[in-house]
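Summary for the funding panel

The consortium committed to producing paired sequence-structure records for every protein in the target list. Below we show the first two records in order, beginning with the earlier of the two.
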Amino acid sequence: MDLFNMTRRYGVEIIGLLGFPALSNYVLTVDYREGWVRMEPPQELSAPGPQLGDNAKLPVPIAFR
């Protein structure tokens, strides 16, 4: 899929798309102020927060403009 037109239209590089099939089994949290997105299965929401060295549960940094 050519994403050049979307990149040009929105003025931000778009490198991929995620649709309902990919997102339907996850809870998606977006923190615009801090610039991160977290995707986690619903059952992990009640688990304690990330422990030192447990990078799997840390927010994934992304760039916002």
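The next record, for a separate protein in the list, is shown here:
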Amino acid sequence: MSQELTGNDKRKASCKAVGGEKKKTGHKREDHFAERWGDVSSAITYKAEADKTITDETLLKRLNETLGPLTSGRTSLKSGNNLQFTLGVIPEITEADDKVCAIAQQSLWEKYLAKSHSDNPADILCYRSKTDWTFFKMSDVISFIVKNAKWRALSSGRLKGDFVNKTSKGFSQYLTYEYRQTHKSHFLGANGNKGQPFIELLKENLKFHVETD
């Protein structure tokens, strides 16, 4: 006789199922990317480093012309309405007395978004929509976040990053730092259906290049 799941167990099972589906989607995205512009024989990485490397000379030429000089074709791939930059321990924030100041440091974003401490740091950020691939220079993205995000601490312990935009209010929250009980880890990224809006904000302010399927 099977035991009925409690509400909390149901949430955990649901999160696990969603996480598994996201991994499958991510693997398909990376395979598709490699087929178009990279090395199809390269293995999917599970490390905190660039997801794929562009080897296609035509695309690299276009990106260098549009985005500015790139040091490599190493790329971080993102998609969907919830962008996870990192999920794990972030001691630079958790151990800081002033967390708002800590999250605004460029070195933190270079480490956790560009994966600068890895053997394969990402020079490019690529966002995958249903039909398009939008490319940004990673250093431009990081500079934009560091310069323009206005961080505020909530009583819950979350940190929210606001950016000036064209809404009637004049600004909106796009980025979040929070502790996720399900994973026992800290999340940094654009969640709550803020992923695609954040990409649109980047497109309004930074150089970008689009490739269509």
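Regarding this second record: The longest helix spans residues 7-37. The helical segments are 7-37, 57-67, 91-94, 99-103, 106-112, 138-148, 195-205.
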